[in-house]
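Write out this protein's structure.
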Amino acid sequence: MATGKSDISGWLVRPAGGWWWAGLVGVLGALTVHTVLVTSDGGMDNGIVVDAARTWLDGGSPYDDRHFLYFPSAVMAAVPQALLPRSVLDVVVPVAVTVALALGWACALLLHRVPLRSRLAVLGLLGLAAGFAPFGQLVRLGNWTVTAVLALPLCLLLVSRGRWVAAGAVIGVAVALKPLLAPMALLFLFARRWGALALVVLVPAVASVVAALFLPDPTGFLTRTLPFLLSGDDAFVRLYEASPAAVLPRLGVPRAPATLLALLMAAAGVVCAYVRWRGPGPVPLRLAETSAGLMLSAFLVSRPSYNHYLLVVLPLLLAGLPYAGAVARRPWFWLALVPQLPGVTWPWLESGRRRAFRDAFTLCALSVTVSYHCVRGARVTRGADGPPRTPEGRRAAVESA
């Protein structure tokens, strides 16, 4: 890896001044306070889960609401929120979501051995908060996707330090809260870490079975939610889905070919992710890009698939920027994100109900870019053992080893 003064990597890993941090705190604070003032129950999506828990406490079935798409274990996890006054949730949830997003970014930096005091640490989170619209949307919605945004980089950080079983437990807990990270089971399968893989499967399975025994409709997830997820037949949800299987039919493509195309793209993405796993390069970079490939492949076929799902993989890829062979150095990585710039009005796509077309472009372009990089570009990373370090970064690396 180039470490000369002309390379941006050296500049990114140097310590950031205090005024940099003041700007970041100001942006995150403004976003959080605005959310507190305009949302209820911590956000619409958080409200769906909390209302499901309240329904259960009142003796009803959480699955009476067809938009409650979580495992039974999530009902129990939402009970503490259901017992709190709405005025408290209005404050606690936006703050908790913002903190979790920041912690996920910190774990991604640590995975790539980038100092937490670096300029990239500040600029990366600032760029996500101010330049990537799904970040603010996730905070305002209070969506439980934030659990995956934190759990995935934490899992990979543990894996990079050889703690596979702990990493499997982290993914298992995250899946019990929201099934978004279920595709990560393939990473443990690639690595043949059977004990960790067992935790990925057993933790949410056991938690959901035990929780279901306390519900008036124990099989509600299987009889109501699962058919809804497989069919995706919901006029409101369909407007905001970013997967090709949902977007192409809105452009006149028959549903069957659209679904087949999405499945083929996802299968190709999984193959490319496996190639990256078996390829050269630093372990942190291989872990991040393999995992990103797996998750993006899943987003191509999952129903629903929303733009804020991209926050699960984007911090992992962005934090790898100091590596010479990182996918974040490819032009199409940045071009794919252009439609997600906040405040930009796109002709014929200005309506919120047409946002899915922009989201689908970002998802597909990012998926193709990562898949191509996994197959053709990973060889560039051969011999690059990590980002250039300041003296502080070298000390941090020694302490974390």
